[in-house]
Hints:
Rossmann fold, 6-stranded parallel sheet, homodimer
Amino acid sequence: MARALIFDLDGTLVDTVYAHVFAWQRALAEEGMPIDGWRIHRRIGMSGGLFTRAVAREVGRELSDEETEAIQKRHAAIFSELLPDRRPLPGACELLAELRERGIVHGIATSGRRPEINRSLEALGVGDGTVVVDRGDVARAKPEPDLFLACQAALGVEADDCYVVGDAVWDLLAARRARMLSVGLLSGGYGADELLAAGAFRVYEDAAELHRSLDELGFG
Amino acid sequence: MARALIFDLDGTLVDTVYAHVFAWQRALAEEGMPIDGWRIHRRIGMSGGLFTRAVAREVGRELSDEETEAIQKRHAAIFSELLPDRRPLPGACELLAELRERGIVHGIATSGRRPEINRSLEALGVGDGTVVVDRGDVARAKPEPDLFLACQAALGVEADDCYVVGDAVWDLLAARRARMLSVGLLSGGYGADELLAAGAFRVYEDAAELHRSLDELGFG
Lengths: 220, 220
């Protein structure tokens, strides 16, 4: 039996959540849809398309596919401007390095898209040897389970043997739908209760605490 | 008996928390102190000086008063650049207008400083008739109780008759030290459990829900 870890990217391995919130807030305000920062924060991690449509519906608007696409592009542009450099979260690089060294099966499954995610992967030292499934690889993003299922298939393991590691409730809900256990990290700014209520098997502060706790998850 | 409401400003009445997080993150990184967004978020609302020193200590540095002051100035400059306009949170203007109309005693007590907070007060329609206590009016900011006690004294009411309304655990902890009940709002991005654990008497989503719930607090 090969136990495996499937990681979310933003807020889990790289410190990008607050720049994403602010970039979304500005992109939406420019389109006449001002919305509270905390409500954006609580939706980060789901597909950008789903997110944009959900916000529009909340302010009583229906967006065309072209409008949704344009807002997502504008978000990506503002985000790059705000955060040209990507900062790995504490412990993320060391954890991934140890997994590679020990041959522990792992991959990354993100609602982000190439090429936007490339700088984050570089900052983490993730090369071609690591399975990375992105938004473009599946029909439906989180909270649908498709990203995690595609990653699991690419890793050649069973769902029962996978832990999903994520900072957002969307990761944990998608994990349950994929019949995988999940680990919630506080490094995306959710409260521990929200992660537990979404089904987290364990909650740690960040990748560094997960790294110190691998034994607890059966990677002894 | 005059029941009174004492409001925090950022994250409680105006939607500024995420811009503050990002501005702090950038100001600290420029000084060679990169720190996770979520750890900044969880400290927003305490005095800028306390906050800056706490972060420095965490990364193993001691800051002089001049360095602390310079980082706070840089934060204020980045914040103004990121967010030239201040957006009232849903229901905030309407709630304050009703309190004025009904003659319900209320004031604002903020860890922010004039002139930085002036644009927020203008956006809320708060004029000279409203008591506003800011960081410059007291020796020690939140989580010390001084701001709330100074506001209470200016309002001419008893601590027992005051509710503090805030989005951060620092508001709620300072309220308990001032022997006041408190109301936590989710609009600053904390989880409900964190606010309840810090002693919130009630938790609402935002000023709009508080407005609809005044009866519950005895402002019937």
